[in-house]
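thought: user wants a sequence for this fold. calling inverse folding tool.
action: design(structure=
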């Protein structure tokens, strides 16, 4: 299945890039540019998480598949749910193909929720690819009386969050308003890993907006030891290995609510987005996308990804761009409904 998808992506890449890929002169130009240079991947989160691990693994192989064979460097730039990193890409980093970003999957919709902080145009960035799609889940710690989602209808539980402007805060508020679940959100944690540690210390009972793939790779012992309960899943479709866990889309009561959920969850289709800044020359964007696809087919890369328990179901840059275009096409009324459903409320 993955190879079929890669073949289709390669065909789409060739069709979309045309002469930018096929022209020897263009290829020579790209190779000449990258020879002897360093490409920096800026990660919008601190070290140790799945975004960071994914970027560091990509950095070991991406340069090998780029014309000119540049070296690769990874830098962490956490802050404001990765908005600090994307603003750096937009306003500070070179727009020549030597700077890339591994940023929040929600970057295509963040300006709608945080216009004061997320001052950028998602459409101007150049998607390069994502290593996989994703489903987000809500979990509770094993000592919580809330073992299933139905338990939230009779027992209040406290969930930790970094704030109300990212998935850790948006998703529990959405769930509370949509379903009537008895949810209390405690904000102020620096990052998702801090929320997870707070849950382990029993400061809070659970966490929303945790990637299912990340749990399987970074918290597998907790699953095996039944230290966490998976109580809800959120995305455009259910995870195949969570058939009995409730799905947020099933709680949409009106067509407008369903459309609002689609707006919120469409970014999950590119869970670990690697992007280039605006205005990068088209032939270099094409080369970066081709190098990403080649990396996704690199047997050594795939072996290391499997060892690190990182899921690889690649999404091409072209697929990401098409998805972002669909996101940008949502009606204003739908976006306003999504904002209503996810708005933070200090009193919860």
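)
observation: tool returned 348 residues.
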């Amino acid at each position: 299945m993955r190879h079929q998808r890669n073949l289709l992506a390669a065909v789409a890449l060739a069709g979309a890039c045309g002469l930018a890929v096929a022209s020897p002169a263009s290829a020579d130009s790209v190779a000449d540019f990258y020879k002897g240079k360093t490409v920096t991947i800026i990660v919008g989160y601190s070290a140790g998480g799945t975004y960071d691990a994914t970027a560091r693994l990509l950095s070991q192989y991406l340069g090998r598949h780029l014309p000119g064979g540049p070296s690769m460097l990874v830098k962490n730039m956490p802050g404001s749910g990765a908005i600090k990193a994307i603003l750096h890409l937009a306003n500070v980093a070179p727009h020549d193909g030597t700077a890339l970003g591994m940023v929040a999957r929600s970057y295509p919709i963040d300006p709608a929720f945080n216009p004061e902080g997320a001052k950028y145009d998602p459409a101007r960035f150049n998607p390069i690819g994502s290593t996989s799609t994703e489903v987000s889940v809500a979990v509770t710690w094993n000592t919580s009386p809330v073992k299933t989602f139905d338990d939230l209808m009779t027992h209040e539980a406290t969930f930790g969050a970094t704030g109300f402007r990212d998935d850790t805060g948006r998703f529990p508020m959405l769930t509370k308003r949509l379903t009537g679940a008895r949810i209390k959100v405690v904000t102020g944690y620096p990052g998702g890993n801090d929320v997870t540690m707070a849950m382990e210390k029993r400061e809070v009972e659970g966490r929303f907006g945790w990637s299912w793939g990340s749990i399987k790779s970074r918290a597998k012992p907790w699953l095996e030891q039944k230290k966490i309960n998976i109580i809800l899943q959120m995305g455009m479709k259910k995870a195949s290995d969570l058939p009995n866990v409730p799905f947020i889309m099933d709680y949409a009561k009106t067509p407008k609510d369903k459309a609002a959920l689609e707006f919120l969850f469409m970014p999950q289709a590119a869970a670990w987005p690697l992007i280039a800044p605006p205005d990068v020359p088209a032939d270099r964007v094409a080369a970066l996308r081709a190098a990403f696809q080649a990396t996704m087919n690199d047997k050594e890369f795939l072996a290391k990804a499997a060892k690190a328990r990182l899921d690889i179901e690649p999404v091409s840059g072209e697929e990401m761009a098409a998805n972002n275009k669909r996101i940008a096409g949502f009606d204003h009324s739908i976006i306003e409904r999504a904002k209503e459903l996810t708005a933070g409320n200090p009193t919860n």
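thought: summarizing for user.
answer: Here is the designed sequence. The CA atoms of residues 233 and 247 lie 5 Å apart.
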